[in-house]
Amino acid sequence: MQEKQLDKESMKGTIYVLLSAVCFSTGGVLIKSIPWSSITIQGIRSIFSFMLIASYMVITKRKFVWNKTVLFGAVCNTVMALTFVSATKMTTAANAIVLQFTEPIFVILLMWALYKKKPKKAAVVACAVVFVGILCFFLDSLSAGGMAGNLLAVFSGFTYALVMMMKGFPGADFESSLLASHVISLSIGLPSFLGETDHSAKAWICIILLGVIQFGLSYIFLSRGLDRVSPVTASLTSTLEPILNPILVAIFCGETIGRTAVIGAVLVIGAAACYNVYEAAHKD
């Protein structure tokens, strides 16, 4: 009876993470559809995400926590989100999301650097394959804008790794860091918003959807999923995001990527997925 209950909870957790990945994957097409600067988009979408997450915390009776660790997490999340939006504007949505998906590899390297946790051979192989995949993207985007966008996407993956590791830091609180991050983003983006001239209905509909679905609901689903499944299962399920994101952009925006970048995408996503499968099969 107890095993059936655990299986049921695990299934719920997997569904939550899957829903989170679907919500996150709408970022590319929505960002591409908003004629505002990256700073403005990040700041204004944070308003709607803040309201949703704050409401969620009130309903679930979660208290807001404030300390240095929460602040550090807020800064990391702000940088991660802003660099991803900027990368999506400067390069293809596929490049941005796949290069940000290097996050699991950065987690491996950071665990080695910060906690002296030597990576396994499988992790080293995964890192090597991802590195080759990244090179494919840079070879496919030699223009100044594409190159800068790729660099920002990789850096976004690095800061995303810090955000995902935050739960293991003393005094950390994921939801509190999110709320603080939204306040920082709004403070930075509001002056830029005052200079925007396009306030069409399409722009506002997209920014609201971006804040509520892609930046708010996605985190709520992820939080509930991680309460029920392991990080390995969550990471494996989230592989759907870098696959679905460019498909949506191709359908609604007509944006495609080159053959070399496609090879890079296969290497990056494949390496991360295979490593997670290997870990799941060999976990203690």
Number of strands: 0
Order of helices and strands: HHHHHHHHHHHHH
Shape call: globular
Q: Rg, please? A: 18 Å
**Helix residue percentage:** over 70%
Question: What structural category do the secondary elements indicate?
Answer: mainly alpha
Strand content range:
under 5%
Instruction: Indicate the mean pLDDT.
Output: 85
Largest sheet report = none
**N/C terminus separation:** 24 Å
Features of the shown structure:
0% strand; 284 residues; single chain; globular
Structure commentary:
It is built from 13 helices and no strands. The chain has helices at residues 2-24, 27-32, 38-59, 68-90, 93-100, 103-115, 121-140, 144-165, 174-193, 201-226, 231-237, 240-253, 259-282. α3 (38-59) crosses α4 (68-90) and α11 (231-237) packs antiparallel against α13 (259-282). The protein is globular and about 50 Å long. The model has no long low-confidence stretch (mean pLDDT 85).
Gist of the model:
With 284 residues, the protein is mostly helical. Helix content is 80%, strand content 0%. It has helices at residues 2-24, 27-32, 38-59, 68-90, 93-100, 103-115, 121-140, 144-165, 174-193, 201-226, 231-237, 240-253, 259-282.
